[in-house]
Amino acid sequence: MLVHRSGSPHRTRSLATVAGALLALFALLLGLPGSATAAATPAKDAPEPSHPAQDWAGSQIAAHEGTGSVRPATGLLAGVEGVDVSGHQGSVDWSALWNSGVKFAYVKATESTTYTNPSFAQQYNGSYNIGMIRGAYHFATPDTSSGAAQATYFVDHGGGWSKDGRTLPGALDMEYNPYGDTCYGMTATGLVNWMKDWFATYKSRTGRDAVLYTSTSWWKQCTGNNTGFGSVNPLWVPRYGSSVGELPGGWGFHTIWQYTSTGPNVGDHNSFNGAYDRLQALANG
After folding, report:
1. CA–CA separation, 164 vs 168, rounded Å?
2. Residue 190: burial class (beta carbons within 10 Å; 0-12, 13-18, 19+)
């Protein structure tokens, strides 16, 4: 007597084979190198920056957070007076700045992996030659290429470091996107992993932990107020008002305060949070 079965052995074996193959593929994907940091990889579809003259440290701060109604007068802040400059300033009168009391400078070197500041040599070498302690910074565009690629480009185009007592560690500028979505179309985890990639690459190339430039508001909005960088990376924070205000998560104090974008000679003025010998210590590592 024939007995009817709901499925043939061949079909059962075929389904089992397909299920097994899917499970194996899933396990393989989980085990691929770099899968844990996949969120750090940009979408690869963002265009390279067009440089609309709005891509320097603080260029987006006033637009998004305001300029503040009160700011300290130059020379009245505790600490050491500094400036930051980029290509939009062109040739800088370093003698006038030095004579006004400015003793350190950060100079924009690069952006993404395609742009270098055309005035970099005059600004970086000019500040050094007048007697200032100076460093370079990179304007981040996390949606155009990886953190490692941008850190490498930065070091190769002026962002290196030497223990000469006059060169500050490089700085990473993380702020509002001048080209589109505020957080570069990335998740908080993606941006945090991108920065980890940048900082690790910079340190492997130079031996130094880089400075991080960011505002508290942007940091909260785009990283979820991540607390993972404060114990390692010195904070350079912009706030245009009478005090430095609330700091991003993870930092108990700031190292540099960008307190105005409308200062004398060049717009962006900064105050180092400490005496001159502490600024020298930051330079020396």
Report:
1. 10
2. buried
List Cβ neighbours of 200 (8 Å cut-off, separation of 6 or more). Answer: 148
- The amino acid that residue 69 corresponds to is S
| Closest by Cα among 193, 205, 117 to 161 | 205
What's the full length of the chain, in residues?
A: 285
Give the active site residue among 84, 111, 143, 268: 84
Phi, psi of 156 (to 5 degrees): -75, -10
Residue located via tokens 């941008």 = 150
Query: For residue 194, how many other CB atoms are within 10 A of its CB?
Result: 26
Q: Which parts of 3-66 are beta strand (E)?
A: none
- Among the options 81, 143, 173, 268, which is catalytic? 173
Annotation says 175 is catalytic: yes
Distance in angstroms (rounded) separating the CA atoms of residues 3 and 96: 101
Q: pLDDT digit string (tens) for 221-230? A: 999 999 999 9
Host H or E run for residue 70: none
Active site includes 48? no
Instruction: Please write the tens of the pLDDT for every residue from 184-215.
Output: 999 999 999 999 999 999 999 999 999 999 99
CA distances, 6 to each of 3, 11, 12, 76, 91 (Å) = 10, 10, 10, 88, 84
34-48, 165-179, 180-194: least confidently modelled range: 34-48
Q: Is 197 part of the annotated catalytic residue set?
A: no
From the list 65, 175, 197, 268, the catalytic residue is 175
How many whole angstroms from its chain centre is CA 115? 15
